[in-house]
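Exercise 7. Given the encoded structure of a 364-residue chain, write a plausible sequence.
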């Protein structure tokens, strides 16, 4: 994939992280002083902004799966130890630092507990509450990376890498069936219906499917994407819209069953369209791409800026007492800036260490 196309995907990541940040806004803007439009927009995005996580899932499946597929395509084998170590340097240092700070400072919504720490350290947050509620998605992704690494190793040994489409189709059907059964037999709860890995991993699997066709049937995928790019863009947006109207999620079983399927289909359509659509390089798109590039650390820290940093700055006299509208702007901008700071001074140094210990190959 060219650097240019990577920029398109970073813009999509930037949109995803902004949706998540807005979804976690508290308090929401009141629309005072001429900000009525802001109130309406934020309230609309607040209800369904969590679809940004589904976009992240599909992108992660595509990008991480693509690394392994390219290695298999170029070398005929896969080094999963190298893959997991390099992936670990990307994920663990930033998250462990974030977790350590959670015990040193009151940056979480609820006080940290020993059980929350265990869930975090073993990436079980999709099944038990971690210190920070939003870390459940990191658990789903972590489970996917490990399962994917050993799946690809097994398929390479069996010379069955081209069974990926059937495996993804099976996974998608089984996950949907399990979501429907869960919705029928258990009253809705986030930890039972929306966060478990076995109910959400199909989103990452769909990104993996797109990566498979991108690397093994590239000309066909690009041909289809080019021919139907506007249909893919429009269809992708439409598929992601229901959660913005059917809210709160607990009142609409469609959303936490079939809706998760339409979410990843929509995100996948947007991703596929962006493989052939060039986004004009301008100030706005470059900013969005940079935000997307640093989205992991922004995702980690965005809630903490709201729960801890803003009250601390106000109490210290460094910020005036904020109206709900001003609070929103401070939260949005501060979350992004704090995340970028942590990416540059925590995440990036460990990536340099990684590249020194295990240099990236041409394949990586």
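Solution.
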């Amino acid at each position: 994939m060219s650097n240019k196309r990577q920029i398109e995907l970073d813009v999509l990541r930037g949109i995803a992280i902004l949706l998540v940040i807005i979804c976690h806004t508290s308090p929401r803007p009141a629309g005072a002083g001429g900000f009525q439009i802001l109130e309406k927009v934020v309230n609309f995005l607040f209800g369904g902004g969590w679809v940004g996580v589904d976009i992240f899932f599909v992108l992660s499946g595509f990008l991480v799966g693509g690394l392994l597929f390219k290695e298999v395509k170029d070398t005929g084998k896969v080094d999963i130890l190298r893959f997991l170590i390099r992936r670990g340097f990307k994920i663990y240092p930033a998250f462990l630092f974030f977790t350590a700070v959670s015990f040193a400072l009151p940056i979480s919504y609820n006080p940290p507990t020993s059980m929350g720490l265990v869930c975090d350290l073993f990436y079980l947050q999709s099944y038990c509450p971690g210190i920070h509620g939003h870390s459940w998605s990191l658990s789903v992704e972590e489970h996917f990376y490990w399962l994917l690494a050993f799946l690809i190793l097994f398929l390479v040994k069996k010379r069955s890498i081209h069974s990926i489409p059937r495996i993804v189709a099976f996974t998608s059907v089984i996950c949907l069936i399990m979501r429907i059964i869960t919705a029928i037999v258990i009253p809705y709860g986030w930890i039972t219906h929306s966060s478990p890995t076995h109910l959400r991993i199909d989103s990452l699997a769909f990104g993996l499917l797109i990566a498979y066709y991108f690397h093994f049937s590239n000309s066909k995928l690009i041909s289809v994407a080019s021919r139907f790019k506007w249909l893919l863009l429009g269809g992708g947006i439409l598929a992601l819209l229901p959660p913005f109207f059917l809210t709160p999620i607990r009142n609409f079983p469609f959303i936490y069953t079939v809706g998760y399927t339409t979410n990843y289909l929509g995100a996948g359509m947007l991703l596929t369209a962006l493989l052939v659509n060039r986004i004009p390089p301008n100030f706005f798109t470059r900013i969005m791409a940079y935000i997307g590039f640093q989205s992991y650390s922004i995702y980690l820290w965005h809630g903490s800026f709201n729960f801890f940093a803003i009250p601390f700055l106000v109490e210290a006299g460094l910020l005036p007492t904020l109206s709900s509208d001003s609070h929103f702007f401070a939260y949005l901008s501060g979350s992004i800036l704090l995340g970028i700071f942590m990416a540059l001074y925590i995440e990036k140094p460990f990536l340099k260490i990684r590249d020194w210990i295990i240099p990236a190959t041409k394949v990586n």
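Remark. The first helix runs from residue 3 to 23. Students should compare their own answers with the one above.
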